[in-house]
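Sequence, C-alpha cells reproduced for reference:
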Amino acid sequence: MFGFVTADLKTLTKEERSRYNAVYCGICRQIRERSSQSARLGLSYDMAFLALLLMSLYEPEETAGDRACLLHPIAKKPWVNNEFIGYAADMNVALAYFKALDDRQDDRSLRAKLLGGIFGKNYDEIALRYPRQCQAIRDCITELDRLEADSCPNPDLPANVFGNLMGELLVYREDLWAATLRKMGMALGRFIYLGDAMIDYRRDRRRHRYNPYLAMGMEEDWQRWEAHLVLAMASCTQEFEKLPLVQDKQILDNILYHGVWSSFRQPKHERRDGVD
C-alpha cells in the first residue's frame, strides 16, 4: 500500500532534488545502522515524506555527509541525519515486517518468509522505542485481515483503518500538533488505501482477491474513484496547511499537491494490470 507519497522529481529544483535524495539516503543509512544491511530491501520513499514533515515541523539539529555505499559503490551520495531520520528508518522496518507477515499469510511464499525474518530481527527493539506506533501497525493489519475475510463491501471501513495507522505514524510526540497530524494522517491513509484499491482493481479481479470495490459489486469507474481521492487529499492538505512549516515546505508541497498523483497519470492499461 505504499509508493504513493513520493515527490514529482521532474518539478523539483536541483537543490530540492538533492535535499530529497539526501533525506532518502539518510533513512537508508540509518536502516543499516539501526537494523541491518539487508533490511534496506524494504526502503520506501514514503518514509522520506514522513521524515521531511517532522523535520520541517520541529527543525532538529542535523548532521550531514557523503559517502559511497554497497548500493552506490562508486559515486558518493550525500545524506543527512537527525532524530526524525532515525524514526522514519524504524517505522520503515516495522511496516516492512508486518507487510511481509501479511504477504506470508496470503501467499505462503518463501520470499515473504525470508523478508519477515530479515525485518523481524530488530522489530522488538523498535517496538520498545515506539510502542504506540507499533501497536497501531499490528492493530491495522489484524483489522484489515478481518475485513478482508468478511469480504467487507464498504470501502470506508478498511480505508479508515489504514487512516488510523497513518495518523499514529505522523504523530511523533503528544503535543499541540498531535491532533492536526492525526487528522492529516487519517486523510492521507484513506487516500493511500483507496488509491491502492483503484490501481489493483483489475489484478485483484483476475486473481479473485479481496478488493473493496469488487466486494461491493462495482465495475471500473475511475472518474468516481478519483473524486473520492480528491476529497481525501483535500482533507489531508487542509490539515497540512495548519502546520507552521517553513523548512522544506516546497518539497512537501510538491509531494502532496503533485507527487501523490503520479501513479494515476499512467495509462489505465499500465496500472498494475500485469504480472507482479
